[in-house]
Design brief:
The protein is built from five helices and three strands, in the order ααααβββα. The chain has 106 residues and is of the alpha+beta class. It has a three-stranded antiparallel sheet, with helices on one face. It starts with a helix and ends in an 8-residue tail after the last helix.
Length: 106
Amino acid sequence: MSKTETQSEREMLEAAARAAGFDEKWVEFGVLYPEYCMDLVAALRISVEHNHAEETRPWVCASIDGGPLRMRKAFVEDVPDESRRWDRMRLAILRCAAAQAPKEVA
């Protein structure tokens, strides 16, 4: 399990905000208003894909192309039922954005 997968949602929001160049105020709004994840999609050019309707195992994927020298990073979340698709999409976007944050030096 990677560090990103073990981070709290708040930590992921903070890392995602750093990656997108957003300030702390954005983090507070991101906590209160989950739809702010669309700001991350636009700022970081994150692609979001969903399973085809006929597939029996629903999923959602947020990915980003790392450019010519870096590989594509993809974060897949299973969708336990359709009523949770938005929440699982938001989580995949958040994980993808947080992974783009500059690494902190100890």
